[in-house]
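A quick aside before the break. I want you to see a complete sequence-to-structure record at least once, exactly as it would be stored in a machine-readable document. Don't worry about memorizing anything.
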Amino acid sequence: MSELKLITIRDVETEHINFLWRPYIAYGKLTVVQGDPGDGKTTMMLAIAAAVTRGESVGGGDKTTPADVIFQTAEDGLADTIKPRLEHLGADCNRIHVIDEEDRTLSLADERIEASIVRTDAKLFIIDPLQAYLGGADMNGTGGVRPLMKRLAAVAEDTGAAIVLIGHLNKNASSKSVYRGLGSIDIPAAARSVLTVGRLTDVDENMRAFIQTKSNLAPAGKPRAFGLDPANGFCWLGDCDVTIEELLDGKKEEKSASQQDLAKAFITGLLAGGDVASDDVYAKGADAGFPAITLKRAKSKLPVKSEKRGKEWFWVWEQAQGYQSAQQRDAAPDSAHGAGYVNGKLAAETLDTLDTLALEDAS
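That is the input. The structure line, written in tokens, reads:
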């Protein structure tokens, strides 16, 4: 009979959770980012990685010290896809590393994951997609996946790095969102946070959002929207009132439709007397019970555009110009961060009908 060992909770030292981005991505824990191909999962995580390398806030969070990132991908080429995207996003590419798999393919149980984090003191390790790094284990069976996830969770805890696994969704639309990820339920079960990414094509074909469908470490965060332009431009668009049904299935809830109709009527009445400063629109909208993202979505359905006058933005009742490429704008690039950056920040001009959704936020 083996010797019985007990741990008394009184003797356990309490530890506080630190977040790379509260409450979405925690240091020392596993996070899963899941979505369909082309929905912006990788671009979103590259944007977060770029912010980490610059020590800038992620999605409006706290600024940090610039740190290293390891980005392991089995889908996109480093030279023709990953590096150009990182440069466009203004990443410090001296701080982004990839484990060389030329001689030996990496797996989630590979000791090189922990070794690379220790050597670089990386604060963020991204694996894209996780299905490519199972080392031959049956992704649908608990016997093979559970030990891999347990091992990876231990690496995150031991190193203090945030480890993010990017995965695809299955086609079972009838399942709960947490079960929509490809593979065994042990994958999201091991993660402390699961972010489900999808499209918001009812607003703009280039608009995306994510919903935190699992959060074990803090109250779940609000859904967040972001925009992509045809040239891989990226911009955070703030909180979003989208539901998981809308995000995954395109279903429109009656409450959401009614709220948007009310917001459209509110904007129409507000602009009846002439142009209104965007700050005033948001302030008066908040007083009337409309979140900023609801006003933006309603605005996209109206002949209203944003117009900058000096340093202030105004909402103008005029036919919108539509979505345009960032290359059509005349913002001068910041050489320290790459094309599309001004003063170290992604130029808001990377979006245009997301002008109306993003330019004001970035000004």
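Two observations worth writing down. The radius of gyration is 22 Å. The chain has two domains: 18-249, 254-335+342-362. We'll return to this after the break.
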